[in-house]
Task: structure prediction
Amino acid sequence: MAATPNLLASVTLFDGPPQELASLVPDETKVKGRVLASWQLTPNPGRQYWLACGYSGTRITLARALPKDLRTCSVTYDPAVTLDGLPSIERIACK
Result:
């Protein structure tokens, strides 16, 4: 029996720990058949931004606090290819 890989299926940014449910809405643009979701991370003393990743074939979500000096995060999706009903993720970049 071959193991099915659990692929990255979703990315969510949060203002604070994910259990607080303060997910951030990205700005989205379409470029050459791809969707670029981007978040501007404004310094917020006393709070930290978090990144949560969900994986196909499981309900497990991995999350971690982002470094405080990051100012932007973006995710590039290919809407022509889906995974668990969501557009596939091609790239994640945070600066």
